[in-house]
């Protein structure tokens, strides 16, 4: 098909993502952000009301004291918020991306014309990835206008890479199995447990863990974003490469597997 036709497909895929999955992602993100940030911000107000004059003098002014408290709250907020939102966002964006079409038989209509399943699903994967990053960027700007600025290149990079990790894994699971979101949960729990349990073991079996990403260390990425510390380039690269490899594996499965087989 021509590039113009694929761009039209991309527009429809973006529309489907935003209406079907993106809106749910926004609602869940806003709700979780409120439930996470509201108690922390309320704690700042109570702290400021009861802060002794000598402590305020140490900061220099009441505004400086409030800014310092808000900086610490933002770090706590991002550390506890980003991981959940990225995981849920990837799960919702990629849930049934290929498996649902096979189970419902929609592939017969989607590919009744000269449309490549590899390009169709690969493009849907990229649209979901870009859509989620756009949603996070927009909501970060809203948070910055209402509370305090949090949008940084570090945040966007971390969100994009971590989403790629989970979305790539789920894309591979969706291309290979009838059910994907439950398998992603099991995969995440298993990888986190094994790395937490044997990540520093001197046993030779430690090296078998490298077939799994060290999901027990995802908090290191989110903590760095919250505090403004440099991201662990090696760890972030590992996560990104693993997600990309899983996405490529999903395309290979779609290339050689009959869609009619569940």
The biggest beta sheet, please?
Answer: none
Please provide the count of β strands: 0
Number of domains: 1
Number of distinct helices: 10
State the order of secondary-structure elements, H for helix, E for strand: HHHHHHHHHH
Basic shape: globular
Beta content comes to under 5%
Helix-and-strand structural type: mainly alpha
Question: Helix proportion of residues, in percent?
Answer: over 70%
Overall average pLDDT = 86
Distance between the termini: 27 Å
Unreliable sequence segments: none
Rg measurement, Å: 21 Å
Core attributes:
262 residues; mainly alpha; 10 helices; 0% strand; globular
Written overview of the protein:
This protein has 262 residues and is mainly α. It has one domain. 78% of the residues lie in helices and 0% in strands. The chain has ten helices and no strands. It has helices spanning 3-50, 53-59, 62-94, 99-104, 107-110, 117-146, 153-176, 181-198, 218-227, 233-256. α1 packs parallel to α6 (117-146), α3 (62-94) packs antiparallel against α9 and α6 runs antiparallel to α10.
Itemize the secondary structure elements and their pairings.
Layout: H1 3-50, H2 53-59, H3 62-94, H4 99-104, H5 107-110, H6 117-146, H7 153-176, H8 181-198, H9 218-227, H10 233-256
Helix pairs in contact: 1-3, 1-6, 2-3, 3-6, 3-7, 3-9, 6-7, 6-10, 7-9, 7-10
């Amino acid at each position: 098909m021509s590039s113009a036709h694929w761009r039209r497909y991309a527009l429809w895929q973006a529309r489907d993502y935003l209406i079907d999955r993106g809106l749910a992602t926004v609602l869940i993100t806003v709700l979780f952000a409120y439930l996470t940030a509201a108690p922390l911000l309320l704690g700042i107000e109570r702290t400021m009301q009861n802060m002794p004059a000598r402590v305020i003098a140490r900061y220099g002014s009441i505004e400086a004291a409030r800014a310092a408290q808000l900086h610490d709250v933002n770090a706590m907020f991002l550390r506890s918020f980003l991981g959940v939102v990225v995981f849920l966002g990837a799960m919702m964006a990629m849930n049934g991306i290929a498996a649902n079409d096979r189970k419902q038989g929609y592939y017969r209509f989607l590919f009744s014309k000269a449309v490549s399943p590899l390009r169709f699903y690969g493009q849907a994967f990229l649209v979901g990835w870009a859509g989620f990053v756009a949603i996070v960027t927009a909501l970060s700007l809203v948070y910055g206008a209402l509370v305090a600025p949090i949008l940084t290149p570090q945040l966007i990079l971390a969100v994009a890479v971590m989403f790629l990790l989970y979305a790539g894994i789920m894309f591979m699971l969706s291309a290979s199995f009838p059910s994907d979101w439950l398998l992603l949960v099991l995969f995440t729990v298993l990888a986190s447990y094994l790395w937490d349990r044997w990540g520093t073991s001197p046993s030779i079996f430690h090296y078998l863990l490298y077939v799994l990403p060290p999901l027990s260390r995802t908090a290191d990425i989110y903590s760095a974003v919250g505090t403004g510390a440099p991201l662990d380039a090696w760890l972030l690269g590992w996560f990104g490469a693993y997600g990309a490899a899983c996405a490529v594996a999903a395309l290979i499965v779609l290339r050689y597997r009959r869609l009619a087989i569940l």
